[in-house]
Amino acid sequence: MRVDRDVLRANYEEIVRRSGDRRVVASVKADGYGHGVLDVSRALADAGCDSLWTGHIGDALAIRAAGIDTEVVLFGGYTPDQIPALVAAGLVPTVVDLTGAAAAASCGAAVYVKVDAGLGRLGVPVDVAGTVIREMAGLDGITIAGIYTHLPFSDRAGREWAVSKGAVFTEMLDGLARDGVRPGFTQMWGTCGLLADLPDATNAVCVGHALYGMSPFTDPTLTDAELQPVLTELGASLIHVADHPHDVRAGGYLTRGVSRVGVIPFGVTDGMRRVDASFEPHALVRGQRVPIVGTSLEHTVLDLAAVPDAAVGDRVVLVGRDGGQHITLTEWATSIGCSELDAVLAVAGRVQRRLAGA
Fold this sequence. Notes:
Elements: E1 2-4, H1 5-19, E2 23-27, H2 29-33, H3 37-46, E3 51-54, H4 57-65, E4 71-74, H5 83-88, E5 94-95, H6 98-105, E6 110-116, E7 124-125, H7 126-137, E8 143-148, H8 156-178, E9 185-189, H9 191-195, E10 204-207, E11 231-237, E12 240-243, E13 260-264, E14 282-285, E15 288-295, E16 300-303, E17 315-322, E18 325-327, H10 329-335, H11 340-347, E19 354-356
Parallel strand pairs: 1-19, 2-3, 2-10, 3-4, 5-6, 6-7, 6-8, 8-9, 9-10
Antiparallel strand pairs: 1-11, 11-17, 12-13, 13-16, 14-15, 14-17, 15-16, 17-18
């Protein structure tokens, strides 16, 4: 897979432009959304991002160990007893209850507080958040650096839900401010709220999907943003080509009348999905579109009838350009029955990353 740092920086600059006077912090969770957390973090820091957020302790420690000089915030992923060690390592924890806040106070830490404004995953429930955060603020040794929530959505019904829950979160912040609890950082919108241009009374946005050029929307009319995928190419090389002129319809991968097959070393274990013919997945070989017939644990089989001169060693493109043809990340993800993000995360790990851009 090829990761283009110039595209990442261009996406970041467009996000900063759309954010106006709000601070932009970057989500680099899930190994930089599958693009490589250290490469992504370096590129974002070079572009001017001063705060990187992840839910994975190992990734956070790797960012710090690499000498990347930004704030590194943990979304979560630990128990209160681990907080002093994380703070000692130069990380900023998120707390979601009084026990976690007390652990942070014991080591004189600054923390972010996450509020669950209705998603139902992680955070202080919004109906009690005002009371709990006031108690947190009263602990000796703690500094509440920020308060944030997360309200993702994919369609217009979700948009309306997010707007309504965002108003409740804003009301909670207003109540805290009246009592003198005014952290320097407040945030409720991520990629969804930013790209849909939702009203925002907070002073920051925390963006993930958009940085990597991936849309969280099932309804494309929710935004006019034009961001490019940072994953610009995914491919492999043919390791086997064979003709089966007398075995057509015999069984196995030949049941659909395939007589000339090619094999690439990219299978389920590498992130390929089991092939569903109804999605009609294709690859590019020598500038031609060829059907993907099926996949196994470590191999994927192609129908090479349209490319009679294909040979072992030829480049096979699953995402990217070859000749005048182009398979986009969106097309690839759709053809294997998942979202763009799921498609990228699936290949992260065993597939070699190659960097493009400065």
